[in-house]
Specification:
It comes from Oceanotoga teriensis. With 80 residues, the chain is mainly alpha-helical. The protein is built from 5 helices and no strands.
């Protein structure tokens, strides 16, 4: 999966999970400040990514997620 395809998938999952319009979600969007994601929602999102993409994201990695780009980077690493 290319980075572009992965970004689209991540945006789609965030949009669906948090009921946010896809157009409002950019690669540099900050989860807390820009998308109003709280810690519980981040955990739920992580589980959605793990299920959809069949990967395992470590708790230590989740703690470092600040932006959509961070998510894409982690997932890209897991998928390669």
């Amino acid at each position: 999966m290319s980075r572009e395809e992965l970004l689209k998938k991540v945006v789609s999952i965030i949009s669906e999970s948090l009921d946010i319009e896809e157009e409002k979600i950019k690669e540099d969007s900050r989860l807390i400040e820009d998308l109003d994601v709280d810690s519980l929602e981040l955990v739920d999102l992580t589980m959605d990514f793990e299920t959809e993409l069949e990967v395992n994201i470590e708790d230590s990695q989740v703690e470092n997620i600040r932006t959509v780009k961070d998510i894409v980077n982690i997932l890209q690493e897991k998928l390669n």
